[in-house]
Design brief:
The complex is a heterodimer. Helices cover 60% and strands 11% of the residues of chain A. Chain A is an alpha/beta fold. Chain A has three domains: 249 residues, ABC transporter involved in vitamin B12 uptake, BtuC (Orthogonal Bundle); 170 residues, Rossmann fold (3-Layer(aba) Sandwich); 47 residues, no CATH class. In chain A, the strands form three sheets. Chain A has a six-stranded mixed β-sheet with strand order 8-9-10-5-11-12, with helices on both faces. In chain A, strands 4-3-6-7 form a four-stranded antiparallel β-sheet, covered by helices on one side. In chain A, strands 1-2 form a two-stranded antiparallel sheet. In chain A, helix 3 packs antiparallel against helix 10, helix 5 runs antiparallel to helix 10 and helix 20 crosses helix 21. The longest helix of chain A is centred in the middle third of the chain and has 32 residues. The N and C termini of chain A lie far apart (61 Å). By secondary structure, chain B is an all-alpha fold. Chain B has one domain. Chain B is built from eleven helices and two strands; from the N terminus they run ααααββααααααα. Chain B has a two-stranded antiparallel ribbon. In chain B, helix 1 runs parallel beside helix 5 and helix 2 packs across helix 9. The longest helix of chain B is centred in the N-terminal third of the chain and has 32 residues. Chain B is globular. Classes of the chains: A alpha/beta, B mainly alpha.
Chain lengths: 614, 288
């Protein structure tokens, strides 16, 4: 029974004391290294740590957020320039240089990333377009920086000649506080980098990080769970921009000099290499990658590949992408995962049969999860129509959906069922008419807001987050509704009971069978406790037994929520005892219960393509 | 403002837009027909420029050198498609990374082989006078080249077997496969076509833009932005977006600096994308 008990205590998005051990270990390692390195090595190794920090910023947006940005060096360079200009002008006031350069660098990086991210994410650009924009942004900055000259107080920005006299690392206060020795400088940078890593690590373990992971896996589903995808992406991008700006400011103080080459393509190319070598999405991998690349070229002696670094790195990037796209640590992780999966398969052999029958919906708990009672929530469309060029899939459909009896939408292919449903969910913005939910106009509302207002949407394809286990899938949905980790834990546990999936709670969703994934998807929708539930062909791909249960559940749901089912399968529709609406050529064609519609010659005509009504 | 000044500005904007179009169209074809953005496109242009340069140096007449450069770059493109792009189908961001790596490999190789500066070809420079102003005849000639090039591509994609098959393959890959279209070979051909167009651009622009290892970077900012701004309708979208953005940038550049021209180009593209997230042609009914 140990398994069942474990399933009752979900640990999702919890603080892990174990990671603090890592933090202390890394700081300890930095102390040892700073003592062991000779001054020159300590000086060079400092730059590797800075590059690792830059890699971390890319890993946040790309490895976790799924957005490939070639603009991290732009935020890095801008942070470096502005942080250093501030330090040049004000460091003499305090002695300590970092209190000036680091906050300004971070703020600059964050602000620039916020601007670029705002334009791309809120413009709803595709992933390719986003990458191109970040790349050209870096290139434009580079051409600007080459010819840009200005004098800001004491700081002289000399275009291609760069900016010199950037003060080095001073921690002490007062006018004559000493410059740090290389060893101490390395330690300082390493501690700052460890803090940045740890903060990122904790952030990505929090619900925020879990939602970011979900957005990477399936942004559409994340939005259908009520998350503001663009806001999350923008926040992540801004945070990563701050990390890049921090790295830039540290770099300026390390080199005492900055020139436009920080914006160059050659510089930018290294960042994804660090991330790829160390393993994408691992956060700590960026540092491993930077240390590996830096260390390798150091021990090979800078001269050997010195001039050809770009050549070698370019070739490396091609090879990494083709052969080792999860990097060194990623490759190891994959191997371990494989071994674990093999081991688990062995002891799951006998369990499999038990699980099949355990997939039974506990309808008693359905009411628990619903915020039932009160006024019925009505979804109403009035005169809604949608046009694409010369095609008008939805013409003036006026319908009102309320609870009590299941509502079904049927119709032959091309009748406008899916388009109408998409207008209701907000994927399509109608060209005319209005849609109201619980009396509020939602005609132009974004899908995630509709979900928050009580709309639950299940698409035809099972949409689950393949990389997460069953429990986390449900948890993400539950958290969207409650915004409270403990509440979400409770809903998740209840949901696992209800779906009869307690034994598979820790299995990755990708391992589930097709039917199980459909149930999980449905469970995620129900975890939102929607008042109106739209189901697009829910019975597709289910076994007879599963259909029977689904039919039972849909009817139970209709008692407390407005349920709309779009379905092709007439036998399934018949079991629902539903109020059926037939759509034809984008208009309501007939309405009634399924038996009377089956007797209706006009309905048979359109289904069979007979002449009279086609 | 006098009439001759106005005419000069107009013509030079038009020729800048034509230069941009010549440099972009190969990228646009690959993006439109394969959904792939080749970040090494600028270096393919450079590749073509160097081939043409060496051909003319060795006594090949310039027109023939242009043809040679196009063919050699197309072959190179076919090899790249077979060796790299092919392994990354469906992994669009990985394709970006790999071609980015390739871009720097080519750039650095050129630096190693040729050094950073090379002289241009000795073409007789002729100018025509418009009132008090003079314009290079060659730059005006490039307007004609752009028009003919677009016309030829339109013919290739709508009237030839390859063009029809390639467009079918992108519109509905599954149906295309079921009627026996081999998408692998089509993709190799398309990528080679795009690369050949890049090589052609490098060669035909050689008299006006001398070959240097970094010449690619000068073109790609505008080329990438133009393709992204153009959106899915490859040819006409690129003509409109490239023409409009190129003219705006060129006018800015003639009043301020070329750097300012790049900045304005970037800002204009961002503005366009804010209004048309998938490019200006996303809602067009045209298919090409």
């Amino acid at each position: 029974m140990a398994k069942a008990v474990k399933a009752d205590m979900p640990r999702v998005a919890r603080f892990e004391p174990f990671s603090l051990v890592w933090f202390c270990g890394l700081v300890g390692l930095a102390i040892v290294a700073s003592l062991a390195f000779d001054p020159y090595l300590a000086y060079v190794a400092t730059s590797w740590v800075i590059f690792g920090l830059l890699g971390l910023s890319l890993d946040l947006v790309w490895g976790r957020g799924g957005i490939l940005s070639f603009g991290q060096t732009a935020f890095y360079g801008l942070g470096g320039y502005l942080g250093s200009i501030t330090a040049i002008n004000f460091a003499s006031l305090t002695g300590n240089t970092l209190v000036w350069s680091l906050p300004v660098g971070m703020a600059t990086g964050a602000a620039t990333a916020f601007l670029i991210g705002g334009l791309t994410f809120y413009g709803r650009l595709g992933p390719l377009q986003t990458t191109i924009i970040t790349y050209t942004f870096t290139l434009v900055l580079w051409t600007v920086a080459v010819s840009f000259t200005a004098t800001v107080g004491e700081a002289v920005v000399g275009g291609d000649n760069g900016m010199s006299n950037i003060p080095g690392y001073v921690l002490g206060l007062g006018r004559d506080a000493p410059l740090l020795e290389p060893g101490a400088m390395f330690l300082t940078v390493a501690v700052i980098a460890t803090i940045a890593w740890y903060a990122s690590h904790v952030l990505m373990r929090s619900p925020f990080g879990l939602v970011v992971d979900c957005i990477r896996m399936d942004p559409v589903k994340a939005e259908l769970l009520g998350y503001d995808v663009r806001l999350y992406q923008l926040l992540l991008f801004t945070i990563a921009g701050a990390v890049a700006g921090l790295a830039g400011a540290l770099f300026g103080a390390w080199a005492n000099y900055l020139n436009p080459s920080v914006f160059s393509v050659q510089e930018a190319l290294l960042v994804p290499i660090y991330v790829l070598v160390g393993g994408r999405g691992t956060l700590v991998g960026a540092f491993i990658g930077a240390l590996a690349v830096g260390g390798l070229s150091f021990w090979l002696g800078g001269g050997v590949i010195g001039g050809q670094t770009t050549l070698v790195m370019g070739a490396c990037l091609i090879l990494l992408v083709i052969f080792l796209r999860n990097g060194l640590t990623g490759g190891l992780k994959d191997l371990m995962e494989l071994a674990r999966r093999l081991a688990r398969r062995r002891d799951q052999g006998e369990e499999a049969e038990a699980r099949k029958s355990s997939l039974s919906v506990d309808f008693e708990r359905l009411d628990l999860l619903r915020t039932a009672g009160g006024e019925p929530v009505v979804l109403e469309t009035e005169d809604t129509f949608k046009r694409f060029g010369g095609v008008t899939p939805v013409r003036h459909i006026s319908q009102s959906f309320s609870r009590g009896r299941v509502r079904c939408l049927i119709g032959p292919n091309g009748a406008g069922k899916s388009s109408y449903l998409k207008a209701c969910t907000g994927v399509y913005k109608p060209d005319g008419g209005s849609i109201t939910l619980a009396g509020q106009d939602i005609t132009k509302t974004d899908p995630f807001r509709r979900v928050r207002m009580g709309l639950g949407i299940k698409n035809q394809r099972a949409q689950v987050f393949a990389g997460l286990d069953v429990r986390r899938n449900l948890w993400v949905a539950a958290y969207s509704r409650s915004r409270d980790a403990r509440m979400a834990d409770w809903i998740t546990t209840e949901m696992l009971h209800m779906l009869g999936m307690r034994n598979s709670a820790s299995r990755p969703a990708s391992e589930l069978s097709h039917g199980e994934q459909q149930w999980l998807d449905l469970g995620m929708v129900l975890a939102l406790a929607p008042d109106v539930i739209l189901l697009d062909e829910p019975a597709a791909g289910m076994t007879n037994e599963e259909r029977r249960q689904l039919s039972h559940m849909v009817r139970a749901l209709a008692r407390t929520a407005s349920v709309v089912v779009v379905e092709h399968d007439m036998d399934f529709v018949r079991t629902l005892d539903a109020d059926v609406t037939v759509l034809h050529q984008g208009e309501v064609f007939a309405r009634g219960d399924i038996e009377s519609l089956r007797q209706d010659d006009r309905v048979l005509d359109i289904y069979l393509g007979r002449r009279q009504h086609v | 403002m006098e009439l001759d000044y106005l005419a000069t500005v107009l013509l030079s904007s038009l020729s800048s837009a034509s230069v941009l179009l010549i440099a972009t169209v190969g990228l646009a074809i690959v993006f439109g027909l394969m959904g792939v953005i080749n970040l090494a496109h600028g270096e393919f242009i450079m590749f073509g420029a160097y081939v043409a340069l060496f051909a003319t140096r060795n006594g090949v007449p310039f027109p023939l050198a242009v043809v040679l450069a196009s063919v050699v770059t197309a072959l190179f493109g076919a090899i790249v498609e077979r060796a790299i792009i092919r392994h990354l189908y469906g992994r669009i961001l990985d394709t970006l990374l790999a071609t980015w790596g390739l871009s720097l490999v080519l750039y650095q190789s050129a630096v190693l082989i040729f050094g950073t500066v090379t002289p241009g070809v000795g073409m007789p420079q002729s100018n025509i006078e418009i009132g008090n102003y003079t314009l290079s005849t060659y730059l005006l000639f490039l307007i004609l080249v752009a028009v003919v090039l677009i016309g030829l591509l339109y013919w290739l994609l709508t009237r030839t077997g390859y063009g029809i098959v390639a467009r079918a393959a992108i519109q509905d890959p599954q149906t295309a496969a079921t009627i026996g279209i081999e998408s692998g070979r089509i993709n190799t051909a398309t990528f080679a076509l795009g690369s050949g167009l890049a090589g052609f651009a490098g060669a035909i622009l050689l008299p006006a833009f001398p070959a240097t290892p970094s010449m690619g970077f000068a073109f790609v900012i505008k080329a990438f932005l133009a393709v992204v701004a153009a959106g899915p309708v490859t040819l006409s979208g690129t003509v409109v977006a490239g023409g409009a953005l190129g003219s705006i940038a060129s006018m800015t550049a003639s009043f301020y600096t070329t750097v300012m021209g790049d900045v304005v180009f970037f800002l204009a593209t961002i503005t366009i994308l804010r209004i048309f997230p998938l490019g200006i042609s996303a809602r067009w009914r045209l298919k090409l």
